[in-house]
Amino acid sequence: MIEIMNLHLRRTAYLEKAYGTIEAEVMNDVGTLEFNLPTTDDKAQFCNPFHYARWINAETGEKGEMYRVIKPEPLQGEIPSIKYTCEHVLATLADSVMPGHHTIGNIGVYTDEVINYVLSFQTTKNWILDECDFKRQFEYGWSNEIFLNALWNIPMRFSEPYIWKVNTLTYPWRISLKRIDTAAQSKF
Predict the structure, then answer these.
(1) What is the DSSP string of 109-143?
(2) pTM of the predicted model, to two decimals?
(3) Which of 78, 92, 101, 120 is most buried (most C-beta within 10 Å)?
């Protein structure tokens, strides 16, 4: 089942007839959600671009990540349907630019402070920093940079593996920069 929410994150519909759901999570990138809905389903009226969608496991009731609808596409077949492509709400950080030139970091300014600096430019405070496993003191510079690109740039200098984790079950959504435990992977 797919839960649909409006631009104010208020539930507008449950899509019980949605089918062909594919959720693709991508490490350190923006994931996608795709689903199909018969054109005869009157709840299709709620699947507007930039409205939010969340897959819910029908067996367990567990909620998945939050996405936003970006592209409806008609499908031909036995059951005329609409295929909806959605992008992870992490992409909301690609909607805005940090205006002007910014330099932050160096001695005494740690990774979490740099992340919070980037997030502080959000017009709508959709995202907050939850956890940061790193205490680096690199200096960063950006000029008219998209928020998401600035965030992706922060750990690029690290010599250790990392992963961006998100929690979209609460609002504001939470982002964490976590260290990957490579010793745990080698046990398998």
Answers:
(1) --HHHHHHHHHTT-SS--EEEEEE------EEEEE
(2) 0.90
(3) 92
What would the pLDDT profile of 23-59 be if each residue is shown by its tens digit? 999 999 999 999 999 999 999 999 999 999 999 988 8
Q: Dihedral through CA 40, CA 14, CA 2, CA 168, nearest 10?
A: 150
Residue 178 Rama label (left phi>0; alpha psi -120 to 50; beta): beta
SS3 57: coil
Residue located via tokens 């350190």: 28
Distance CA 164, CA 29 (A): 8
Per DSSP, the residues of 141-170 read EEEEEEHHHHHHHGGGG-SS-EEEEEE-SS
Q: Which residues of the chain have pLDDT under 70?
A: 184-188
Cα(first)–Cα(last) distance of the chain, in Å?
34
Task: Round to whole Å and give the CA distance between 32 and 111.
Answer: 28
Separation of alpha carbons 188 and 186, rounded Å = 6
**Cβ pair 66, 52 in contact under 8 A:** yes
Cβ atoms of 75 and 81 within 8 Å: the answer is yes
